[in-house]
Amino acid sequence: MYLIVIAWIYVVLMMSVAEATHSTGTLLGALVTFVLYGVGPVALVVYLMRAPARRKAIKAREAAEAAAVAPDLSATDSVTPDAGSHAAGGVKPVAAGAGIAPVRKEP
Questions:
Q1: Burial bucket for residue 101 (CB in 10 Å: 0-12, 13-18, 19+)
Q2: Strand, helix or coil at 87?
Q3: DSSP secondary structure letter of residue 37
Q4: What is d(CA 38, CA 56) in angstroms, rounded to the nearest whole number?
Q5: Cβ of 21: how many Cβ atoms within 10 Å?
Q6: Helix 40-49 to helix 51-69 angle, to the nearest 10 degrees?
Q7: How many other β-carbons are positioned within 10 Å of the β-carbon of residue 77?
Q8: How far apart are CA 49 and CA 27, in angstroms?
Q9: Which has fewest Cβ within 10 Å: 8, 23, 61, 98?
Q10: Closest Cα to residue 67, out of 57, 59, 77?
Q11: pLDDT in tens, 27-54
């Protein structure tokens, strides 16, 4: 993508030089040509083409922040099955979604 941007800026720069050096051209016209044909459209295209990457980076940053705020309960506070002589799930309160729920058979 950047190769196309560099090539287009080069073409517009050459257009500006041609306008500035032409007998009826002016430096102001060359500057306007460079800005309106080169810098403006290229900045807009690069901004639009980078939108998916920006969105992905924002989601990754939010996921990292959410992971930092919510500690990993599954490794430290979960109830290990068959680790003690008591019934599973009755020792300490377990956060929702963490640990192993007790399972009973139908009588």
A1: exposed
A2: coil
A3: I
A4: 28
A5: 10
A6: 40
A7: 14
A8: 32
A9: 23
A10: 59
A11: 999 999 999 999 999 999 999 999 999 9
Average the pLDDT over each of 7-16, 33-42, 68-77, 98-107 and give the range with the smallest value.
68-77
Show the tokens assigned to 88: 């599973």
Give the pLDDT score at 87.
Answer: 61
Q: Name the band, by pLDDT with cuts 50, 70 and 90, for residue 85.
A: low
Q: Which token pair is 97?
A: 């979604």
Helix, strand or coil, per DSSP, at residue 4: helix
84 vs 11, higher pLDDT: 11
Counting every residue written for the chain, the total comes to 107
- Extract the tokens encoding 10: 């080069």
Contact between residue 35 and residue 43 where contact means Cβ atoms under 8 Å apart: no
